[in-house]
Amino acid sequence: MKLSWKPFVLSLAVLLILFPFAYLVLLSLASDWRFPDLFPSYIGLKNWSKILSSETGLLTSFASSLLISLSVAIVSTVSGFLISRAVFYHPKKNTLTLLAYFPYILAPVVFAACLSFFFLKMGLFGNVMGVIIAQFIIAFPYALLFFSSFWNKKVKSYEDLVATLGGNRWQTYIKVLFPLAKGLLLICFFQTFLISWFEYGLTSIIGIGKVQTLTIKVFLFIKEANYYYGALSCCLLIFPPIVLLYFNKRYVFKKLA
Amino acid sequence: MKNRTNNFIISLFIAIGVIPFAAAFVYALLYSFGIIGIANDGFTTAFWSAVWSSGTFFQSFLYSFSIALVSITLSVGGALWATLKFRKQLEQKFLSFILYLPLAVPGIVTGFFTFQLFSKSGFFSRIGYQMGWISQPSQFPDLVNDVFAFGIVLSFVTMIMPFFLLLFLNVYKNERVEELSVLAQALGANAKQVTQRIFLPILIKKTWVIIVLYFIFLLGAYEVPLILGQESPQMLSVLIIQEIKQYDLDRISEGYVIAVMYTLIVSVAAILLFLPRRKPAYET
């Protein structure tokens, strides 16, 4: 009987995918885990209990990350959807789309470094509003380009039909366009949330260390060689996207399929 | 009325999507020629000459280009192989969810995790010690902050290969590659011919723009090389930020020279990728 190698490779792949999550949780529960120990001498909730204390500032960072990401995701998705309609029905659609690709393709950290002068002049340097606006500038082109496939002939004919039947612009959006684009709007919301949630370089430049999101915290802990708190911050950074991915996959992708 | 509303929305698009990019580019350009900037006193090409003659930019560009190319080749190659070999198994509910998990890990966490595993006192070094292969951390090979960028490439591959695998699985399904393959086999094609004439051409043709886009993203990656890169040469974004944040004021202008050159390269890439729009094969 010939043994198949596929189950072995697949099991290995699953272990390799799950290993980082298990390792980071273990590191966040550990202390005094030094070379050459293969396992930590202490495993417990000591580090996690400190989340609630103001000493680490992790809870504040979590809250400010959440506030920034939700704001960026909501504003980018809504504005991206509404503005993309005008862009993709425009006679110069190709040129406008190309212009949207420039900020999308440029490294956010370089973009932020070149924009920082303007943020400083406008009083948006080192505060949450500045970080939200800067992240919105990079998330908006993504949202706009994301909806490019939505505005096709079929949707245009639905819009024309509503107009023929006497519906106004407001009714077109509420009764036709939003219900049609519901799944895409949700995915775009998740994606722009993740763009903001994962952002480090741009936030460090515009926030100048005063706006301490979770990614900034992770890097601070790495620089301090405090790997246990670093791992803890990583866990806080990873788990919300996993929950989002789960809902994304379970409810949104299924409906789209 | 309708036209006025549309023009207003297009103006809004220009204000959000175009003006910040243009302003950032013009600012960097003026700074690089000494027209603006604290220590600068008028137009000069000295900073451009300095960057040109030092070769820092070209060294960094070549380094970033090589890392991005190796990472993208390994990721796309690995994802294509996995699609070819494990497509049916990967459609199972559990595995299809597991495949999404790496997408929830940001670059900074991947960099941190790779450092934890492959540094001189990291997890694999400890295993080496327990197995008796090394007797002290310094004997463990340089796998992070190393000259061959092993850590950076590994991080990039683990970050983007799952994405490409999901993308290829999706394209395989949507483009009905399965049906085409069965048809080809019925007409006498063997497995190798099906792979070379149907599977690879369809998947690559449908995804090449995304592959090039990811290559450009990797070229400008920041967090991973910041944690796992070496002192010199550095990847482009790390080099630019390091120069711009210098206390030596002349070096700031040189940093903007590199930023302008990098922006020009990615802008040309964007134009080449997205301007020559061919007519779609069918109307949507």
From TrEMBL, chain A:
Protein name, UniProt field: ABC transporter permease subunit
Keywords: Cell inner membrane, Cell membrane, Membrane, Transmembrane, Transmembrane helix, Transport
SUPFAM superfamilies tied to this protein: MetI-like
PROSITE patterns documented for this protein: ABC_TM1
Domain ABC transmembrane type-1: from-to ranges: 62-248
Membrane topology of this protein: Multi-pass membrane protein
Record family assignment: Belongs to the binding-protein-dependent transport system permease family.
UniProt-listed InterPro entries: MetI-like (IPR000515), MetI-like_sf (IPR035906)
PANTHER family: INNER MEMBRANE ABC TRANSPORTER PERMEASE PROTEIN YDCV
Domain of life: Bacteria
Any one Pfam family match given in the protein's UniProt record, by short name: BPD_transp_1
Keyword Membrane in annotation: yes
GO biological process, one term: transmembrane transport
GO cellular component, one term: plasma membrane
Membrane-traversing stretches: 62-84, 96-119, 125-147, 176-198, 227-247
Compartments (UniProt record): Cell inner membrane; Cell membrane
From TrEMBL, chain B:
Gene Ontology cellular component terms for the protein in this record: plasma membrane
UniProt keyword terms in alphabetical order: Cell inner membrane, Cell membrane, Membrane, Transmembrane, Transmembrane helix, Transport
Membrane topology recorded in Swiss-Prot or TrEMBL: Multi-pass membrane protein
GO BP, sorted A to Z: transmembrane transport
Subcellular location: Cell inner membrane; Cell membrane
Residue ranges of every copy of the ABC transmembrane type-1 domain listed in the record: 57-273
Segments passing through the bilayer: 12-40, 60-82, 94-118, 147-169, 207-228, 255-275
Main location: membrane
Family in the record: Belongs to the binding-protein-dependent transport system permease family.
PANTHER family recorded: INNER MEMBRANE ABC TRANSPORTER PERMEASE PROTEIN YDCV
Protein name: ABC transporter permease subunit
Native source species: Pricia antarctica
Lineage: Bacteria, Pseudomonadati, Bacteroidota, Flavobacteriia, Flavobacteriales
